[in-house]
Amino acid sequence: MRLGPRRLLFRNTLGRFQSEEAKFLRAEKNVKELNLSVDLMKKESSKLLERATLAEKMDMKHGHEELLNTGGRIHHLAKSVYKVEAEAADLMDGLREIPGRDALKLRAEASRAFS
Fold it and tell me: Are 86 and 98 in contact (CB under 8 A)?
């Protein structure tokens, strides 16, 4: 920002007429304002950090619950697959015991289906 000649002259002369005490008080006031500003920024940053930490914990808890639910579903599916495999093995054993051409066709069809 460029200052005009009058303004520049006024600022320079006003500064010379001020006492050291007035300059010191103004500087002290500026320091206090800066300290307040820094304190507010520190408080705000700590609040933001707390919120971020809480959000992270909530996300982790939600993710953990999802993992547990997914694990339960996988376990349930594994039991179902095991049950179906056992039934298929029983069916194949039963088909092996039946003599005749029709039984051979059924066994071939079942073995293709289970492969």
Answer: no
Q: How many domains does the chain have?
A: 1
Supply φ then ψ for residue 61, to 5 degrees.
-65, -45
Burial of 92 (0-12, 13-18, 19+ CB in 10 A): middle
Q: Copy the structure tokens of residue 70.
A: 């997914």
Report d(CA 69, CA 59) in Å as an integer: 15
Comparing 48 with 10, the larger pLDDT belongs to 48
Give residue 30's domain range: 5-114
Q: Which residue has the higher pLDDT, 99 or 45?
A: 45
- What integer best gives the mean pLDDT of the chain? 85
Task: Count CA within 13 A, CB hemisphere, residue 10.
Answer: 5
Q: Which residue has the tokens 């015991």?
A: 97
Distance of CA 37 to the CA centre of its chain: 31
On the question of pLDDT at 1 being above 60, the answer is no
